């Protein structure tokens, strides 16, 4: 018989697992890892509402994508275009970034799998006498290690030609040059920290769902058990 067990700690772990997976996925897909040096406004960069020049534009560069401003000569205006600069894996600008993409993708795949499984832990708490919470916690720890490896290797690629074109000639491995770090990089770091927090907190979720109070309510014949 299936018992639906909901506790504060198990629900919090489930929500954190889902948030972490989405945060890492969004960061990986974003082009806002590096913010390039400002491009000076030209005579075509005119704000139609005020008639004045727009502020200088900062192009952004991601692991495999970028955002830049393109001009429309016919209409004398400029639009921001975002998309992948690499059509396939081999065209990613640096070998270090290729390794980063591999490690981040592996970590994110594990996190997404755990996030999916975590939704069903309300009904199924163990498989083959193994606690799902403990297994998922172990997987989250492994995913965190993959994410750390990816984030360590990423700055080593700042010396590639693509990064230099955005960050200036002084950019090199672990040196930003004229660039600054974008929100996607900080989101990836924050998500990595939360990944390890989730891995540790999974043990608390397991304890909460196997506590004496839960066992007492199961023995009383309750199928829906909610504990604060």
TrEMBL record:
Compartments (UniProt record): Membrane
Main location: membrane
Keywords: Fertilization, Membrane, Transmembrane, Transmembrane helix
Pfam family, one: L_HMGIC_fpl
GO terms, biological process: single fertilization
Domain of life: Eukaryota
Transmembrane segments annotated in the record for this chain: 12-35, 96-120, 132-154, 183-203
One CC-aspect GO term: membrane
InterPro entries from the UniProt entry: LHFPL
Topology class, membrane: Multi-pass membrane protein
Annotated PANTHER family: LHFPL TETRASPAN SUBFAMILY MEMBER 2 PROTEIN, LIPOMA HMGIC FUSION PARTNER-LIKE PROTEIN
Membership in a protein family: Belongs to the LHFP family.
Protein known as: LHPL2 protein
Organism: Platysteira castanea
